[in-house]
Amino acid sequence: MDILAEEIAVNIYPKFDKVEFLIPMPASKVRAKQPVTELTKALGKLVGKPVYENMLIKKPKGTQLKDMATKEKKIEILRDSFSVSDEISNTGTWNALLVDDLFDTGASLEAACAVLRAYPKIKNLYVATLTYKK
User: Angle, nearest 10°, between helix axes 71-78 and 107-118?
Assistant: First the structure.
């Protein structure tokens, strides 16, 4: 994780304007340690920014997105699946970076970003993903 976090810190993070906290994309599959969360925490340490692990919440769904052939099907499954936990106690707005492992159709990121943009404490929202599926 540290090598990937370093690469993001050096090559991607500086491209965003004044990121003030990081948010890992919630995992679709339950694991003892979530790779995206661990990566985001490592990145947070490198750039000296807090990580809100539980700000973005994803409701469990029975169908795996990777099994869906089209973006439309994925959007249908993701409808109303994300919510925000108000983890920031003070008032104000801040720039945030959402970290995910994979950009496929963009359906998950679009759904997550829509919910995060509606959160009044986020000023600008940036996204970094590790891989892109063609």
Answer: 40
Tokens of 102: 């994979």
Model confidence over 71-116: pLDDT tens digits? 777 777 777 788 999 999 899 999 999 999 887 777 888 889 999 9
Q: Which amino acid is at 12?
A: I
**Token code pair at residue 108:** 């998950």
Note the CATH number of domain 2-132. 3.40.50.2020
Position 44 pLDDT exceeds 90: yes
> For the chain, what are the domain ranges?
2-132
Distance between CA atoms of 134 and 122, rounded to whole angstroms?
30
* Alpha-carbon distance values, 21 to 14, 53, 63, 87, 88 (Å): 14, 11, 31, 12, 10
